């Protein structure tokens, strides 16, 4: 008779990575509970789109119930399979079409998608029911000699399991205790983001290019802008309320959290010191941030000015960009980490959530093997950590490089960059070679 005992997995944090892992474990019949600090399922509505790469899509396909993966595909926006680069005068530098960034035969699973974060969250939560416990802030844990992990909550309660997965994001409490030397630091880069709401009338006011596909704007120096349309078909009635509005949207200011309105998202990035103000940027109101970006882009092409100026001020928000510092390998225990909790990165390559999904898929596979008795638990967690540290921190480095390039002061570097793009645009085979799998992690 085998001494093997099924696992109970505790996940701290119900964000993209934690919920994806919970779906996968549940699908495989492994006992799992997610403890999330938010009070209600709709507390953390974030009204912006997110890019899901072929790797992220594949992970979702593995982890989600089939019907929810269908809901993901059905509710994704249009135009995510292309990408363009333009100057701040709207001169075209490079256009990457689907046949460049999605090389080789691709099925629906192996594609790029853009989806509203609110919708993705609805999908990730749809099948979890009581697996997710809200209003449970994890404050720490204790590993007991009998091999169990006791998790502590701010309300004084505890929960016990065989494994604790810290999926509690960039400010992870689990990481603070598990790896006290692991740090998350400011990059000195700040982005101001906004949404230009699309209506039958407003869509004619902006350049058609903004409605086609995501775009990167490359001025000659110091700053950059990312633009992406978020347009989708009406929510599909086969998937219940998915793709619609959660109740909290009704009380949201402006169009910030309206999950049913199409929009064009933009994110202006510059060094903190380059913003023309003496006060802390965080103290500024949306109107002041909006005015500042308008002023900083005053010499840009009229199409870009229209997009920025015509944006609903209530949707304008500031995001200070952080990254994590490298962590050397650690001794494996029953407490592990995934996603931003271990390798938080800048959003400049749009891959953080995709790497969190990759973690979830890999860790799920390893924990299922341990649950079935096919691999000892600590060896299974170690297998996961060895791979995750490698690809996770490579993604951190890549995204930091992209962030620094976006705000680089080097005129020469930018000029060369623009030239390379123009040459690649003129030589399709070179373009294919340089940019295949663009946007993947
Ligand atoms: C502007 C911007 C744009 C981005 N765009 C993209 C993109 O297009 N594509 C992409 O791949 N990535 C993108 N990212 C990165 C992506 O959002 C993150 O990498 C991703 O959300 C990480 O998922 P996660 O599950 O690790 O953490 P999170 O999604 O942050 O989830 C952490 C969860 O833990 C909970 N929590 C925190 N502390 C506790 C606690 N003590 N106890 C219990 N629960 C707790 C939180 O409430 C939250 O629900 C972007 C990021 C930004 C800032």
Please describe the structure with a list of short key phrases separated by commas or semicolons.
single chain, 441 residues, alpha/beta, FAD/NAD(P)-binding domain, D-Amino Acid Oxidase, Chain A, domain 2, 2 domains, 7-stranded mixed beta sheet, 5-stranded parallel beta sheet, 14 helices, 17 strands, 34% helix, globular, binds flavin-adenine dinucleotide
- Mind describing the biggest β-sheet? 7 strands, mixed
Strand fraction: 15-25%
Report helical residue fraction: 25-40%
What fold name stands as the CATH topology of the largest domain? D-Amino Acid Oxidase, Chain A, domain 2
Shape: globular
Report low-confidence residues grouped into runs of 5 or more.
Answer: none
Number of strands: 17
Mean pLDDT: 90
The CATH C-level class name of the largest domain: Alpha Beta
Bound molecules: flavin-adenine dinucleotide
| Intertermini distance | 44 Å
Structural category is: alpha/beta
Strand order of the largest sheet: 5-4-13-14-15-12-16
- Number of domain units: 2
Oligomeric form of this entry?
single chain
The CATH architecture of the largest domain is: 2-Layer Sandwich
The number of distinct helices, counting runs of at least 4 residues, comes to 14
